[in-house]
Amino acid sequence: MIRRHFLTIAATAAIIHPAHASQAEIAALIRELAAGRPVAKGRITLEVPELVENGNAVSIVAHVDALPGEVRAIHVFANGNPLPHVLTARFGPRAGRPRIATRFRLATSQTVTAIAEMADATLHSDEVDVLVTLAACIE
Amino acid sequence: MVRALLNVPKRARVGEIIEIRLLISHPMESGQRRGPNGQPYPRDIIHSLRAEFDGELVVELDLYPAIAANPFFAFTMQAEHSGTLSLTWIDDHDTVQTEHAQIEVA
After folding, report:
1. Average pLDDT over residues A34-53
2. How many domains does chain B have?
3. What's the structural domain count of chain A?
4. In the predicted model, what is the mean pLDDT of chain B?
5. Would you say residue A4 lies in a domain?
6. Structural domain of residue B91, as residue ranges?
7. CB contact A14 to B (< 8 Å)
8. CATH number, domain with residue B22
9. Which domain holds residue A24?
10. Which pairs count as long-range contacts for B34-43, CB under 8 Å and 24+ apart, including other chains?
11. Is residue B37 a part of any domain in this protein?
12. Hey, what's the torsion of the CAs at B13, B5, B51, B64, to 10 degrees?
């Protein structure tokens, strides 16, 4: 009886608070973004350290091998965080190089994905597998 | 008003690509962290940031709780004429804050 109770509570907790976004959730987000367009590897480079000691502030740089004006947006997703979105950067007419740098949180070891949306509507992606030894503040 | 450090070159040549760096003092509370009573701390993040040069868009960012506390951003713009760079951000309390920087282009 106690065990059954525990299982019910555990199952409910898992539904309400998933520990991290699933790969399926990421795939669905990317599908929504792509809207039927293929996503090719390359052209965009994602710079994230492969071994992270502290997940609370991890430096990230995403840049695209393209001229100013050729890139519409850069999107970054992290599949091991409670919420998969990290950021979206949309470039305007005054933008310089298609490059964005910031610091973000990693809840656990996971794969970080960056997608570049070009002005000609093609999509390009890059991925980095990151090993995190101290996770970001979930506790 | 929160403290923010905006680092932009004061002078640039025509056509030069200059780097803009911004550091904002903000807790960026993710809404995932739980307090001693088991309740999550309410989410309080800067969710959007827009950089404009004399009204023309440089870059616009949509931000999510994954962005670290005291967020740092670096990006570039192309300088064609002298003008004012303005960076505006909005947080979950609907607080709007703007920082300006004058850039001389010659």
Report:
1. 93
2. 1
3. 1
4. 95
5. no
6. 4-32+42-105
7. no
8. 2.60.40.10
9. 20-134
10. B34/A139, B42/B92, B43/B92
11. no
12. 140
Cα–Cα distance measured from residue A131 to residue A45, given in angstroms and rounded to the nearest whole number: 18
Q: Which residue, among A54, A88, A94, A104, would best test binding to B if mutated, counting the most B CBs under 10 Å from its CB?
A: A94
Which residues in chain A have Cβ-Cβ distances shorter than 8 Å to B63? 87
Q: Which amino acid is at B15?
A: G
- ipTM given for this complex: 0.92
List all residues 6 or more positions away from A51 whose beta carbon is below 8 Å from its beta carbon. A130, A131, A133
Q: Do B76 and A88 touch (CB under 8 A)?
A: no
Residue A67 lies in a domain: yes
CATH of the domain at A84: 2.60.40.2470
- What are B28-61's pLDDT values in tens digits? 999 988 889 989 999 999 999 999 999 999 999 9
Amino acid sitting at position B65: P
The reply to whether A31 touches chain B by the CB within 8 Å rule is no
Tens-place pLDDT, residues A74-122: 999 999 999 999 999 999 999 999 999 999 999 999 999 999 999 999 9
Residue of A nearest to B18 (CA): A96
Taking an 8 Å cut-off on Cβ atoms, the answer to whether A105 and B53 are in contact is: no
Q: Which residue of B53, B57, B59, B63 to mutate against A (max A Cβ within 10 Å)?
A: B59
Is the predicted pLDDT of residue A50 greater than 70, yes or no? yes
Residue B62 in any domain: the answer is yes
Residues A129-139, mean pLDDT to the nearest whole number: 78
Tell me the chain B residues in contact with residue A57 when contact means C-beta distances shorter than 8 Å. 68-69
